[in-house]
Amino acid sequence: MKKLLTAIAGAAMAATTLVAVPTSATAAPYCGLVWGSLAERSTFVSTTATVRNVRAGQHTCYDRLVIDLRGNLRGYDVRYVTAVYTEGQGLRVPLLGAADLRIIVNAPSYNINTGASTYSPSNRYNIVNVAGYRTFRQAAFLGSFEGQSSFGLGVRARLPFRTFLLKDATTSRLVIDVAHRW
């Protein structure tokens, strides 16, 4: 009986040892990034900003899209959606990639006083060259209507992202970073 109790106690101790996970085995966030994939938004209020340019860049842990604006941007909405549509007409724009990010900025791509265009890409369905990027597949300008402009960003998968705004006295830059993986 004593041998049986010793065997049971030894088995229980071994099982406890197998269940315990050392702290070093805990997975760290990718590149230290702790972003998520839920919508990011800033309150929409009156703005004097206008869209001027869109550019993209590659970084070690993420791909970056930057929307350059003249003036003070005061509202944006960035979120994953099932599809993106043109402003005003509502036509579906298919994007390359397995997930679509819709980016809305509270700023037109035209001068509100004169109607003159402030941003008019030569190809609205490929506004920046993202060939060879790890995460981005396509960036499109969806149009500008009633004081807001929309963009579609096709990405490889629904991946974590972050959005932030950089401002100085005369310009704003909306930055969208999408991680290469979870």
Indicate the topology.
Layout: H1 2-19, E1 40-42, E2 50-58, E3 62-70, E4 76-81, E5 84-85, E6 92-93, E7 99-105, E8 136-145, E9 148-155, E10 161-167, E11 171-179
Antiparallel strand pairs: 1-4, 2-3, 3-11, 4-7, 5-6, 7-9, 8-9, 10-11
Write out the strand line-up for the largest beta sheet, numbering strands in chain order: 1-4-7-9-8
Distance between the termini: 52 Å
Strand residue content: 35-45%
In one word, what is the shape? Answer: globular
SSE class: mainly beta
Number of strands: 11
Major β-sheet, in short? 5 strands, antiparallel
H/I helix tally: 1
Q: What number is the mean pLDDT? A: 86
User: Element order, helices and strands?
Assistant: HEEEEEEEEEEE
Low-confidence stretches: 4-27
* Gyration radius, rounded: 24 Å
